[in-house]
Amino acid sequence: MTPETTRVALDAMGGDHAPGVVVEGAVAYQRAHPGRVHVLLVGGEDAIGSLLDKHDPKRECDIDVIPAAEVIGMEESPASAIKTKTRSSIHVGLGLVKAGKAHAFVSAGNTGAVMGGSVFLLGRLAGISRPAIIGYFPTTKGTSVLVDVGANVDCRAEHLLQFAHMGSAYVAAIFGVDAPSVALMNIGEEPGKGNDLTKEAFSLLEASSLNFIGNIEGRDILRHAADVIVSDGFVGNTLLKLGESVASVLPRMIFQEMERLGMGPQDQATVARALEGVRCRFDYEEFGGMPLLGVDGVVMIGHGGSSARAITNLISAADNMVRRGVSTAISASAS
Known about the structure:
Layout: E1 6-11, H1 20-32, E2 37-43, H2 45-55, E3 63-67, H3 78-84, H4 89-98, E4 104-107, H5 111-122, E5 132-139, E6 142-147, H6 157-175, E7 181-185, H7 196-206, E8 211-216, E9 228-230, H8 233-261, H9 265-281, E10 289-293, E11 298-302, H10 308-323, H11 326-334
Parallel strand pairs: 1-2, 1-4, 2-3, 4-11, 6-9, 7-8, 7-9
Antiparallel strand pairs: 5-6, 5-10, 10-11
């Protein structure tokens, strides 16, 4: 049942610029969307309180502070930290979801700790043995999602099949696409291409109930060859990082070429406006972060360098995941 107000546990201590940008982003979201989400800021009471005094001095926003005495640093060992720092903001925030006191957990902190803690505290959905992270690719026809982008470096073929089910359920629920097309990332389009993993995965996907369209190559991603693209986390993360570089490197290359051609300021300004539109499509902050699919609860993972704007969009994405029933849709697809 969709809640009237979504309760989001937000890791106030997670990220390179926490807690400042986290509190700022939470307040900005509440002012833009009053009454939709109840934010639970998890972390150091004194630090959060002083920031709320700055950004919301009259305490008008629907925000509560949940104390957490410890912080898991970005460079700490995830496995060790989750087991030893049971009073960390990540541990406490996930515990709120486990106890039913929050519908979702959001963090821009230590990704490994968020993933490990989610599996340890929330458990996996039925039919899912490997939770995965989704990445977004802007295309000429909208957005394609890539599963997995780093949670699982080494995979078996059945894991890729699970990724496909999760990605398909996600796209259907969030983007409203009926029978999303699913493709397998490979080194060639022919069914016999690839290594043992992709060959076996191809057979499983072909025999599934999914709308599987076959193999695609890297050059096909931005053409929107499929709504859902499946790969192991090693390949997926490599593709994601390449995509992220497009937003910063391509404009520089084009400006270098404009200078070489001697284009005037007015022409350069026109090109710059077009480039900005393209760059925004690759901006991870537009999505806020990436969902961790396959755990028994809604978990959103933000970029370590998240700004207040990214935090605001993370909260919005978590709310959308809850209201669209993504976890229920995944369970139905994977069963």
